[in-house]
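Lab notebook, bench 4. The sequencing result for the construct came back, and we need a structural model before the next group meeting so we can plan mutations. Quick request posted to the team channel:

Model the 3D structure of this chain.
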Amino acid sequence: MSKLPLRLSVLKKISESKKGHNIKTVMESLKNEYGNERQFHEPAFLDHLLSLKESGLIDERKISVDTDGKLLVDYVVNNEGKESLRKYLPKTK
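Done. Here's the predicted structure in token form:
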């Protein structure tokens, strides 16, 4: 079975938590599947998250600062994002 496009996998991963996910937790959870790809780096994931937000598929839930002083934004999937997942995810039998 082929992999989903990374951006769709990011949206799917965020949808699996009611508390939300930030860039670190999303990258950690997708590392096994996408870790060897050239696009597996923080700037690319930030681009995916910002694109999903600007497309109206995810919302900011919480903003904090990590131990390195970096801003962390937790995102949750909104109704539009849930509808996109229903529309674009492969149907499972």
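Strands lie at 58-65, 71-77.
Will bring this to the meeting.
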